[in-house]
Amino acid sequence: MKLDVPGAVSVTAGLLALVYGVSMQNWPAFAAGAVLLGIFWVIELRAKAPLASLTLLNRPNIKWGNLGGLIAFVMSTGVNFGLTIYMQDVLGLEPFTVGLVFGVPGLAAVVAGIVAGRLIGRYGYRTVLAAGLLTQGLMTVPLLWIGTSTASLFIIVPSLFVLFFGHVTAIVAYTVTATSGLPDSQQGLATGLASLSQQVAVTIGIPIFGAIAATRTDILDGIKLAMQAQVVAIVVAVALIWVGLRPRPQATEVAEPARVRSSA
Asked: What keywords were assigned to this record (predicted)?
């Protein structure tokens, strides 16, 4: 099997430059990263054995499913980072205590992993993906009321319970969405593309959150601003995904003659 070395080099260098540019507000580095990622895109479209089969993005479920995964991971990585900084630097909590704050609501993620598949089977991946992302975004809203008192933990813990449930539900739904409706020969490529979306999102999530938060001199104000941006981004993404995954009329038109022939 031939390795896609140019693709691997260009995407790695591009992401590194992009993250460095955002983190350090070095816009030449950011521009270089964007150019390298553009080169990666061209390489993948022409490669015989691409690292990520970008031609699959022509399929709506692949395109919008991966967008859902990208948004879910970018936002969760950012909010976890922001809350960690807040609880340690603003509330003065010990790292172990911060871990408990995240760990206890994490039980909701376990439940979501179990029930998400059933929800998809009943309501479809479009509805579950949109609902999971919207839950993740809307449960960030209560976090905008956190303050300098440890009483804010009574806001954080319940919010994270529901937020983590929505996040994991969205992850399961995006994985199903991004790998559905494909022949067995393309399942591996679709799974690789879904994994790439996840890795890219995890890489850029903290730098984006940190760059927005750094525009404010006060830590708490910066964290709240970044969270506000996250809520807006998720709502916009959900609207795009909902429209992008809408049932296509031609599918019905093709199915009708098939039913007529079968009845005849």
From this structure: Cell membrane, Membrane, Transmembrane, Transmembrane helix, Transport
